[in-house]
UniProtKB/TrEMBL annotation:
GO terms for molecular function: DNA-binding transcription factor activity; transcription cis-regulatory region binding. Keywords: Activator, Amino-acid biosynthesis, Cytoplasm, DNA-binding, Methionine biosynthesis, Repressor, Transcription, Transcription regulation. InterPro entries: LysR_HTH_N (IPR000847), LysR_subst-bd (IPR005119), MetR_PBP2 (IPR037406), WH-like_DNA-bd_sf (IPR036388), WH_DNA-bd_sf (IPR036390). It is found in: Cytoplasm. Residues 3-60 form the HTH lysR-type domain. This is HTH-type transcriptional regulator MetR. GO terms for biological process: methionine biosynthetic process. CDD domains: PBP2_MetR. Its main location: cytoplasm. PROSITE patterns: HTH_LYSR. It comes from Thiobaca trueperi. It comes from the Bacteria. GO terms for cellular component: cytoplasm. Belongs to the LysR transcriptional regulatory family.
Length: 306
């Protein structure tokens, strides 16, 4: 037995997901099959690749060496595969992207950078002017891909899941609700809720949390920028419902407090929307794959789409 690409992919997924279960899901294997593969590789190398029972999973020096090899080799493999696809199909085209998710730039811009290296012939651009009318612009052909958490039933469009994320309520550190693990809808009755400037029907905190319970917050105010919303919260101007990954840095610095919305949390899915006639174009599929990989690498607290 010798080192194979599947071994490098396995060690990379172990590092990125932090668990056997997550790596098995990403590799489309059963946990038992993955365990057997790792055990055979460890027998070949004569040493363990990760520390058993560590949470999250922690690689040994041998595992770290294989990880370094994987991070060097696998991107080259992907680039070679992309080159071969282009040679076979003459791939090139336009990929203009709009974002309805107002807090996506932390992972989307690195994903675009990685994609440009693999697909240099594609005309790639981010169209910020269509953020508040992205899906109509997609249907009309003005843009080619929309990052959204609000898919529609339009038969002309298709939506590929990117990843799951939890929406958390963020509040000032000294807020009366701070310290609670989760909140009920009634807890927001006396609060000013800071939201993005879109219809309530597109905001999960209203559609899936407050409105089913018949609860209305004391007031609302809007901001287009997640960073500004966090600053307003810190200054005691209200509370906000934001994706958990947006809050990782200020939470780690002790600037804010957060709580889940409901005992099991309010979870949402982010999608890449495309026109149905375009959904199998290789350069579109390639971008969606790059977006998934990058998001799982750089964002805290998200779950792969499966």
């Amino acid at each position: 037995m010798m080192l194979e690409l599947k071994h490098l992919r396995t060690i990379l997924e172990l590092q990125e997901t932090g668990s056997l279960t997550g790596a098995a899901e990403r590799l489309s294997l059963t946990q038992s099959a993955l365990s057997h593969q790792i055990k055979a590789l460890e027998d070949l190398l004569g040493q363990p690749l990760f520390v058993r029972k560590s949470r999250p999973l922690r690689l040994t020096p041998a595992g770290q060496r294989l990880l370094a090899l994987a991070e060097c080799v696998l991107p080259e493999i992907r680039r070679a595969e992309a080159d071969l696809r282009r040679l076979r199909e003459g791939i090139g085209g336009r990929l203009h992207i709009a974002v309805e998710c107002h807090s996506c730039y932390d992972w989307l811009l690195p994903a675009m950078d990685a994609y440009r290296r693999d697909w240099p012939e594609v005309e790639l651009d981010l169209i910020t002017s269509k953020s508040f009318s992205a899906l109509p612009a997609l249907a009309e052909g003005q843009i080619d891909l929309v990052v959204t958490s609000d898919p529609t039933d339009d038969p002309a469009l298709g939506f590929a899941p990117l990843f799951r994320f939890e929406i958390l309520l963020v509040m000032a550190r000294d807020h009366p609700l701070a310290g609670r693990r989760y909140l009920e809808p009634a807890d927001l009755r006396d609060e000013t809720l800071i939201c993005y400037p879109v219809e309530r029907s597109r905001l999960d905190v209203f559609r899936r949390f407050l409105e089913p319970a018949g609860i209305e917050p004391a007031g609302t105010r809007t901001s287009e920028l997640s960073l500004m919303m966090v600053q307003l919260v810190k200054s005691g101007r209200g509370v906000a419902a934001l994706p958990g990954w947006v809050l990782a840095a200020p939470l780690a610095e002790g600037q804010i407090a957060v709580a889940s919305l409901g005992e099991t949390g309010l979870w949402s899915m982010l999608y890449a929307g495309t026109r149905g006639i375009d959904r199998q174009r290789p350069y579109l599929v390639g971008f969606i794959e790059a977006a998934r990989r990058t998001a799982c690498r750089v964002l805290a607290g998200i779950e792969p789409s499966g």
